Amino acid sequence: MPTLYLGSMPLEEIGWLRRGACRSSDPELFFPLAPTPSQEARAKAVCASCQVMEQCRSYALRAGESDGIWGGLTPEERRRTRFPEGWRRPAAPEAAAPEATAS
Ligand code: SF4
Hints:
By secondary structure, this protein is mostly helical. It has helices at 27-30, 37-48, 53-63, 75-82; strands at residues 5-6, 9-10. It has a domain at 24-82. Strands 1-2 form a two-stranded antiparallel ribbon. The chain is elongated and about 70 Å long. Bound molecules: iron/sulfur cluster. Iron/sulfur cluster binds at residues 17, 20-22, 30, 46-47, 50, 52-53, 56, 69-72. Iron/sulfur cluster is lined by residues 17, 20-22, 30, 46-47, 50, 52-53, 56, 69-72. This is Transcriptional regulator WhiB. Residues 21-80 form the 4Fe-4S Wbl-type domain.
């Protein structure tokens, strides 16, 4: 059976989206051109009452969704969840350059 897509997302991966509380909300609330704290708070309030918030958040983190509010998290909050402070290993010290020899 061929995989069906919604945009670039496989439908079987996001079937839960049909039960999302945001289905009846203004898409601009979740994908604003210019996000504001007020808009984010209103979108998060919708997510807080959503029966599929865990699936939504898990999907967005796994898929690396870079835009919009998903599962009650902003893009920056998702980045911090995926890459918490200190997640990156310190770079290996660079090898010392050989000293110039006088001839
Ligand atoms: S958690 Fe928020 S963004 Fe995700 S489906 Fe529910 S209302 Fe929509």
